[in-house]
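Q: Hi! New to this. If I give you a protein sequence and the SMILES for nicotinamide-adenine-dinucleotide, can you show me the bound structure?
A: Yes, paste them in.
Q: Okay, here:
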Amino acid sequence: MVHGHLKPVSSRLTVQTIGRLSLYRRLLLEVSASGARQIYSHQLATAAVATPAQVRRDLMAIGFSGSPRRGYAVDDLIAAINAVLARNVETSVALVGVGNLGRAILAYFANREPWVRFTAAFDRDPDKVNRILHGCRVYPIDRAEEIIRRDGIRAAAIAVPASEAQHTADRLVLAGVRSFLNFAPVRLHVPTGTFVDDVDMTTALDRVAFYAHQPQGS
Amino acid sequence: MVHGHLKPVSSRLTVQTIGRLSLYRRLLLEVSASGARQIYSHQLATAAVATPAQVRRDLMAIGFSGSPRRGYAVDDLIAAINAVLARNVETSVALVGVGNLGRAILAYFANREPWVRFTAAFDRDPDKVNRILHGCRVYPIDRAEEIIRRDGIRAAAIAVPASEAQHTADRLVLAGVRSFLNFAPVRLHVPTGTFVDDVDMTTALDRVAFYAHQPQGS
DNA sequence: AGCTATCTGTGACTGCGTTCACAATGTGAA
DNA sequence: TTCACATTGTGAACGCAGTCACAGATAGCT
Ligand SMILES: NC(=O)c1ccc[n+]([C@@H]2O[C@H](COP(=O)([O-])OP(=O)(O)OC[C@H]3O[C@@H](n4cnc5c(N)ncnc54)[C@H](O)[C@@H]3O)[C@@H](O)[C@H]2O)c1
Ligand SMILES: NC(=O)c1ccc[n+]([C@@H]2O[C@H](COP(=O)([O-])OP(=O)(O)OC[C@H]3O[C@@H](n4cnc5c(N)ncnc54)[C@H](O)[C@@H]3O)[C@@H](O)[C@H]2O)c1
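A: Thanks. Here is the predicted structure of the protein with nicotinamide-adenine-dinucleotide bound:
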């Protein structure tokens, strides 16, 4: 029984489901490494801090089936998620802004997610360019359009100061980028059809500070 | 769909509203610096990439009123948001894990958000402790409970490897921390009444990779 | 002072993500 | 082979964040 395959469901997958699939895959890779070959929805749910029904709905959304009393086949499920999340191809991502955060990101993802690879980085500081950092070549920002077009890069992480973020996004959109990982604490204006995922640590820190003051359990 | 998750329902302010208020404040501080004294809901909405009705609802939620035809008083609104988000006091935050990401965070927030301050950092690597980094003292992890209790710290950022995150959270909870900024790509199990805001760059990158493959749009 | 344009405040509504609840399933045991 | 029952698959119900639409308000204009 083959589970999971490409199908015309992509546009029906919500952004929330995509996010949880990413989490499920990470958890499943550990489960698989530990030797388990089957897993129940309630087990995955516990690991993901979600409900069993949520897990089953998500797997239903990608057309993956389990079997009653045996649960889901771990390795097949990993393969199915791989097929959905990145079409089983390696996605090239550009990084703009090789500062403290940009360097941490290059270091972290260098060998960690095989399906995603930072293939080019850009900065406007002459001291930071024209070298290779964690396997990623750093170019001057002026060459961004050229490299992105040449390599057909469609995803980019923005790690420049907030004041430069919108301008940077505008350039990248024109060069062909249609999916952004935005670390700047501002919201980007992009054309319809362009995806932006905001990783706003500033807002997150403010939220954490707020809830630190809430009286326990009221 | 909510970015953070709280075990009980505590305030009438939703976590989404708290997040947007943080964004509004950041935008308003720029508006104020530029000299404007009043602002309309549709102007704030444009800057925040939201709708005017959304902005008005959020301000209504904190009991802030504007005036027809004049809009909202910028500085009063900033003060109102300050009062709500952190009770007008400086919130002390602990950092656990002074690696690449932890150091970037200490550097970034050192002088940027006056209402939040990293007052103590912890690491288990002896080479990284017993020094001051960007104004934050770094202690060995064994002293975490002692320092957190002594200083009454209730918020913490977790920037240790994923395999250490749950164990770290458990320790911090016992020491009195009830609000977490979690950078590890796992979901934390915490007691009811404890807040966790996940900043999951791994999931975010997977989402960005997914949408980079979507054929032109949505 | 009265009029008007336009913004705010908010009850009602909508859409959608999540959860519920249970019928369908098929496995493993006897 | 038969049976028992834990688990899956999913239509329906639910809850709530977000949006609509308009009544109410007020500053500026004549
Ligand atoms: N470091 C953190 O922990 C942290 C936390 C919250 C938010 N952020 C956000 O992430 C972004 C990066 O933060 P950081 O700490 O790495 O900043 P940083 O100042 O260390 O690095 C910014 C880098 O961007 C480069 N740059 C500036 N303008 C550019 C342009 N127009 N084109 C190309 N490169 C340009 C600079 O040369 C520098 O190398 C900022 O938007 C910041 O608000 C960072
Ligand atoms: N760096 C990034 O850009 C990035 C991206 C995505 C996710 N993350 C996550 O953020 C976290 C930190 O990432 P990083 O790149 O800074 O890792 P890192 O390896 O550079 O730093 C981890 C630090 O934690 C310390 N540590 C380990 N176990 C500890 C413990 N039990 N108690 C106290 N300290 C301990 C280590 O000594 C080290 O200094 C990880 O969970 C990682 O998955 C980081």
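A: The pocket of nicotinamide-adenine-dinucleotide (ligand 2) is lined by residues A 104-105, 108; B 96-102, 122-125, 128, 141, 159-162, 164, 168, 183-185, 201-202 (CB under 6 Å). Let me know if you'd like me to explain how to read the tokens.
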